[in-house]
Write a structure and sequence with these properties.
With about 475 residues, the chain is an alpha+beta fold. Helices cover about 25% and strands about 15% of the residues.
């Protein structure tokens, strides 16, 4: 059995209703034959974007208007009839309106007006979202827009998910500058990071000023109530990427984060094995970590610390922890920044502790075809789970059954003195100083060359100097 077949079989065991729902969606989108109507003039045949894919082969069809947006001019359609959720049209007058949009012109040739976009959209929702500052009304446009076609999930499903996990998610995000990772056309479309408060945001969307490595500043979203999560989800936000700081002090992290990233030919089981060693190392440094899935193949571990150290110091603490892990399992873990040196090991990505580097929060939906979630776990959970166990459909039920595994994360803020002493020891006794920063950071004091080892110039005989 192939890995893909095994995955499908596994899915069927955990989600017995998934195939039924997928078939229902296909049936909803299926093009149905209708009697031939009167053809109108066409400006040229174009391409209809998914999921309104319609192949017109000489017969009139019924086009389900679930996803296409009806905007712009340049497309002629011979309208036969308009139903509440369908448009019956003739085959010939189908053309392209540009930028992936569909334009409709009613088949009265003396009235060249463009039909309203409302024909193509599901009715918007207005949700009343209670919160600590009262009830907010949040508008959700086009709620039936398909966001995850492989598993038949819509914008409405994502909104409902964030309503279900709002309480623990806000504990993670509260008072933190938060980058929004937006997928406005769903998981198959373009994605981007919104590092500034979007224009037109409601006045109750709080913000805080942060400083980028370049020295430039911006005001970033600072979630404080459930309505902000729903407003962000309406904008196509899947992941919330909080900084490891809380206002008003946004220059001293209160969270140390370790990202365990499996490299090619390694996987989640390898990350779990390395995480077990990391847990031992944290305990020796007097630190307590809380693990979660990344939503992909990796793991993230968070440690609450006192906000007394700079980003530079916290990053050096992560490097010291990671180096100690690699000493104990050198064949399974690496801190090498350069991919050519990592091999088949788990990379402990210390640069996720650098300023303006963030990871998806616990409870965030990830941009994967299965709509997986970055799930908070206990250490005892790790050997018995797989990342695909946690998605938009399964996580709300798990939360209701067992609560938030990370409720104790804020109980104690830890001291970094011991692990920073390890960093000093490494440099003094082993000549192990700083490691390269990400390419978008300015050159930092004490940082080694940012040159791929295979491309670094090496001195040759006769060209060395004293």
């Amino acid at each position: 059995m192939s890995s893909a077949e095994e995955r499908r079989e596994h899915d069927g065991e955990r989600f017995p209703d998934r195939e039924r729902r997928a078939e229902q969606q296909k049936e909803h989108q299926r093009v149905r034959r209708e009697p031939t109507g009167t053809a109108g003039p066409a400006d040229g045949v174009g391409e209809v974007p998914d999921p309104g894919e319609v192949a017109l082969h000489g017969v009139a069809r019924v086009l389900a208007l679930r996803a296409p947006q009806v905007v712009g001019e340049g497309l002629h359609l011979g309208i036969v009839a308009v139903e509440p959720d369908e448009l019956v049209l003739d085959p010939e007058p189908l053309g392209h309106a540009g930028a992936g949009a569909l334009g409709l012109r009613v088949a009265h040739h003396h009235v060249p007006t463009v039909a309203s976009a409302a024909v193509a959209r599901a009715e918007a929702l207005e949700l009343e979202v209670p919160g600590p500052f009262g009830t907010r009304v949040v508008r959700v446009s086009n709620p039936d827009k398909v966001y995850f076609p492989d598993v038949s999930l819509t914008k409405r499903d994502v909104v409902e998910y964030y309503l279900a996990v709002a309480e623990p998610l806000l504990r993670v995000l509260a008072e933190r500058p938060t980058t929004l990772k937006r997928f406005v056309d769903g998981v198959t479309g373009e994605q981007f990071y919104a590092k500034r408060v979007p224009k037109g945001a409601p006045e109750w969307v709080d913000s805080v000023e942060i400083t980028f490595p370049s020295g430039r500043t911006a005001r970033e979203v600072c979630p404080t109530e459930p309505a902000v999560l729903i407003w962000a989800a309406n904008l196509g936000t899947f992941d919330f990427h909080p900084w490891p700081v809380r206002r008003p002090d946004v220059d001293h992290p209160d969270e140390l984060r370790i990202d365990l990233d499996p490299q090619p030919d390694t996987g989640f089981a390898d990350a779990v094995a390395v995480a077990a060693v990391l847990r031992e190392v944290l305990a020796e440094a007097g630190l307590v970590g809380y693990p979660k899935t990344s939503g992909g193949r990796g793991l993230h571990v968070a440690v609450r610390v006192r906000p007394e150290w700079t980003f530079v110091q916290v990053r050096r603490a992560v490097i010291a922890l990671a180096r100690e892990v690699t000493r104990r399992v050198p064949d399974r873990a690496t801190v090498s920044w350069w991919k050519e040196e990592r091999g088949e090991r788990v990379f402990l990505d210390y640069n996720q502790a650098a300023r303006d580097r963030t990871i998806a929060s616990a409870w965030s939906v990830r941009g994967t075809p299965r709509a997986t979630v970055s799930m908070p776990l206990t250490w005892d959970d790790l050997p018995d789970v797989e990342p695909d166990d946690f998605d938009v459909r399964t996580v709300p039920r798990l939360l209701a059954q067992r609560g938030d595994p990370h409720t104790g994360l804020d109980d104690e803020a830890h001291d970094l003195a011991t692990v920073l002493e390890w960093a000093v020891r490494d440099e003094r006794d082993h000549d192990l100083g700083d490691l390269p920063y990400p390419p978008d950071h300015p050159k930092m004091p004490g940082e080694p060359l940012r040159v791929q080892p295979s491309r670094a110039k090496r001195p040759t005989s006769g060209n060395t100097t004293d």
